[in-house]
Amino acid sequence: MDVINEIFATNKVLYQCACGHCKPLTHIYFCRYCLKMRCKDCVYHEVDSQYCQHCLEYIPTIDAKLKKNKCASCFQCPNCMHTLTPRTFLASVPSETDPNGMTTRKAQFLLCSYCKWSSKDVGIPDQFIGSGGWPEIEAPNRKRVEGLVDHYRVIAQRERMEKEKKRINPRPGHAIHLLDKYGISASLSAKLTESLRTKAYSGRISSNYLSASKSLTDIKLEPSLATDDVEPLDVDTFYNKDLIESEISSIEQRLMQVEMQPNTVSQFYPISKMLYVKRSLRCKECDHNIIKPEYNSSSIKFKIQLSAFYDIPEVKIASTPKLIPHKESMVELTFKNPYQYGMHVCLQPLKDEEMDESITGKIILPKAEFILECKDDTLEPELDSTQKTRYNDDPQLITFRRGNKIGLRLTVIPEIDSGRCRVCFRLRHDFVNSVVQNKSTGGSEPQVSWISHKIYVDLGPVIESKESIA
Ligand SMILES: [Zn+2]
Ligand SMILES: [Zn+2]
Ligand SMILES: [Zn+2]
Ligand SMILES: [Zn+2]
């Protein structure tokens, strides 16, 4: 268990995102267009497509809105949340041609294979195949909720329009947001949406949809009114009857069906599975996509995936030293280049204004620059013994070199008497951009830029001396 914890405990080395948040490398994206780190807190989240995670059916946005983000054919058990399976059997029904005879038809009921709850338990009639899905029960407050949703939609729209008016230079792509909002973009093909997106930049479409939305402002909402009538307490049920626990639903079961909230087991009804979304992420600064999944709901691949662990060197702690307060100790850090090009790396101390109170140790960094080889899956690093001599590595500093990975021995001095020792430095490296071409050479060569990242390393607790405890 400890080994597993060690692998997934990625909070020891944190990278600072452009927005200031510190995250592990696996939670960070790297925008190759503005050459900055991005995290989920500083990018636009956009819903790309909706799908049912059980039957993997792709559902267009407009349909998903009409179906209240629920799948029409998949249900989960109201008792244990497990997925319900439809069971088919032959039922005998009165024949349509012969008034006295009987005929057989294929019918279905829903059964939970885990807790054995079935739609028969609560008296839901079996569905004949081809009769068009399970009936939906109407929520008691449906009309009121719909009225409120419409009302707030109008308010949100008004606010948005006012904001747009104030903005001198509206953000490009605004029209496509309006198209998304009314579910129009999803009913169009991906190609058409894309061309609309480009047209939207010229602002030709946005005005049409703004005027169309004005008609919605006519919606009137009835205010809520308090009444003097309070339902009398059902004394007979609550005080005079024995409580049978198996007949009463639990809080979890009630909240699973928040619109119905069944008090008793007999009121259970199959719950429609909620749809899942595929999100794409967009850089707030340059509007480029950072993450874009494939449309196909069964695919787990991405069209665009600019995760930082593909581009930025990974720093790990190889061996945790014994940290004695105010004394020098040696720590071994490893640096790994995940990128297709080699990198020149140097470590820099923080400037005084960059220091913060979370840094509790000092790290002595080498002045020399070192080279990280590119990632090469075909290379067998163990066999390549010429590497160490090729780069003329200082054995005092570099402990090992294997392919795209090297180990560095660094000195740290904890500046606290108790608690965790946290050091921070800047990792500066060159980056060969395969996406953005170099403009000065006419676009024939990739652009090379130097970038740096602020990295926090948590080395663990210091050994408390006996005097400080006393
Ligand atoms: Zn961020
Ligand atoms: Zn489904
Ligand atoms: Zn169940
Ligand atoms: Zn960007």
Automatic annotation (TrEMBL):
This is Dynactin subunit 4. PANTHER family: DYNACTIN P62 SUBUNIT, DYNACTIN SUBUNIT 4. The keyword Acetylation applies. The keyword NAD does not apply. Belongs to the dynactin subunit 4 family. It comes from Tetranychus urticae. Coiled coil: none annotated. It holds the Pfam family Dynactin_p62. One of its GO terms (cellular component) is centrosome. InterPro entries: DCTN4 (IPR008603). Subunit of dynactin, a multiprotein complex part of a tripartite complex with dynein and a adapter, such as BICDL1, BICD2 or HOOK3. The dynactin complex is built around ACTR1A/ACTB filament and consists of an actin-related filament composed of a shoulder domain, a pointed end and a barbed end. Its length is defined by its flexible shoulder domain. The soulder is composed of 2 DCTN1 subunits, 4 DCTN2 and 2 DCTN3. The 4 DCNT2 (via N-terminus) bind the ACTR1A filament and act as molecular rulers to determine the length. The pointed end is important for binding dynein-dynactin cargo adapters. Keywords: Acetylation, Coiled coil, Cytoplasm, Cytoskeleton, Isopeptide bond, Phosphoprotein, Ubl conjugation. The gene is 107368427. It is found in: Cytoplasm, Cell cortex; Cytoplasm, Cytoskeleton, Microtubule organizing center, Centrosome; Cytoplasm, Cytoskeleton, Stress fiber; Cytoplasm, Myofibril.
